[in-house]
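cache lookup: miss for this entity combination. No prior model stored, computing from scratch. Input as submitted by user K.M.:
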Amino acid sequence: MSVETQNKETLGFQTEVKQLLHLMIHSLYSNKEIFLRELISNASDAADKLRFEALAKPELLEGGADLKIRVSFDKDAKTVTLDDNGIGMNREDVITHLGTIAKSGTADFMKHLTGDQKKDSHLIGQFGVGFYSAFIVAEQVEVFSRRAGTSAEEGVYWSSKGEGDFEVANIDKAERGTRIVLHLKSGEEEFADGWRLRNIIKKYSDHIALPIELPKEFHGEEKDKPAETEWETVNRASALWTRPRTEVKDEEYQEFYKHVGHDFENPLAWSHNKVEGKLEYTSLLFVPGRAPFDLYQREAPKGLKLYVQRVFIMDQADEFLPLYLRFIKGVVDSNDLSLNVSREILQKDPVIDSMKSALTKRVLDMLDKLAKDKPEDYKNFWKQFGQVLKEGPAEDFANKEKIAGLLRFASTHDASGEQGVSLADYLGRAKEGQDKIYYLTGESYAQVKNSPHLEVFRKKGIEVLLLTDRIDEWLMSYLTEFDGKQFVDVARGDLDLGKLDTEEDKKAQEEIAKAKEGLVERLKTALGDEVAEVRVSHRLTDSPAILAIGEQDLGLQMRQILEASGQTVPESKPIFEINPAHPLIEKLDAEPDEDRFADLSHILFDQAALAAGDSLKDPAAYVQRLNKLLVELSA
Ligand code: ADP
Ligand code: MG
């Protein structure tokens, strides 16, 4: 196509765009038709934006307020063309939106590309697909656009073959909005066909709220053919969330999700509700199937699409859900808010607060239902978003119990090592008389599953939850009980098993403690101020000694987090517990030489630190003492 252009320049794509283009072309060949869904999704967004901006500046709608999308084709020229009369783009918009990917962290993310198409195509899912999908079927893409409110000479032309660069130029464009012309690759001519296009639109874009028109097929005699193309609407063209739940098919929800969520894969669950009464609004919330790569980036987009009486108001309205549910996508359409509501107003409006707490409950209920009805899907959900949900108890005090019910843990009673045990599972198989929920935190599953802290629990068959995510210790500082049962860190304080110890157990413990008072005193002298306390342990069956954390002290994980963030960590000393039944401790007790006693004590103390996953303060001293012992042994 030849166009009058001015100020032509050729620009290179951002590296990430080049990678994405390559990935897309090579991994989406089995699902080519989705290019149309993506381009229509963008046109629909453009119409939403225009309608919103026109609330304050009605003159933007000059030249036509009936917003629509037209899709046409030319079999001979092998082109498919999309026209919208939405917000349009100016030269700057085109260069940034169609030449870069604006998401922070994209470059890092792209480093994960393996070159293995199967694996990489999953990465696309975390990204959405978007405009660049046009290159799946087109060897060249041309864009003609003009931003609403600018004059006809301020149009812009963009063209690319989807390789390294693109061309931009100024053009005249009479109508506002965007025209996209796809020059189909050879082999992709099938898309220049009315029947095919109609089917694709029905399949993926029926839910789009504005009319999508195709040229009416003409079946009569050539001489009777109307001079002007007649158009007909092929989609349903009404906002999906305004329809009754019972009339919307699963596939329609799924396609709608891909549009609002800018996702490429199906959601795991959704919840569609109309609220009437004092407040009136409709919400349609989705749980994505996959975490976006920027889930932990502070500036990453989050929040719902806000509509007021079906008029799009803003994207990423993050006032409607707490931060720990930032992965939820969807729309909320309010009848009570004013059309000129702004973010500042949203932040102050008490109406928003009550909507937020209602929507939060909806999400938590939806997750609960997912866990009950589709445990396999919930497992997947947990893998993707479990860590984010763990932020919940600290952020949302009111829903703490509900959130706790959604958490999943690794456990001594689940050999898979996966985080699959719920607190309800745990309590369901608790021992007779057990009124606590026991847990242990640590670096990794491999490390905690063999921790000496578990010995007595193993002996008595009591289940212990194994918490190894970085956030866990912090989480547990907010989670103090569930279903009336207190959480107990098995590595902390003076372990009291309550009713799980028999009277005889307790009596025996007291007697032993008394009998070993002398040894405990000697150890205190030998270890000096390295320990807060020395005592006889009830935690151990197999190991000689163990370190426990003081009731109020910071755990290892919290200390490491604080240290990593450059904060000074309050000094805390461990409690050294010994297992009097262990042969090493018996030997120690019988050791008459005080120097040798001190060496042995230090070795046992250091080993206990190692077993707890801690590092030694003076590793060289440890090695020296151990070597001395080894020399004596072999002498
Ligand atoms: P996304 O839709 O997720 O933002 P896309 O790759 O689909 O990503 O589109 C990139 C950007 O290009 C859009 O955000 C928008 O700013 C711009 N854009 C694409 N198509 C149009 C259009 N038809 N009208 C106006 N802007 C558009
Ligand atoms: Mg898009």
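stored under new cache key. The pocket of magnesium ion (ligand 2) is lined by residues 38, 41-42, 130, 262 (CB under 6 Å).
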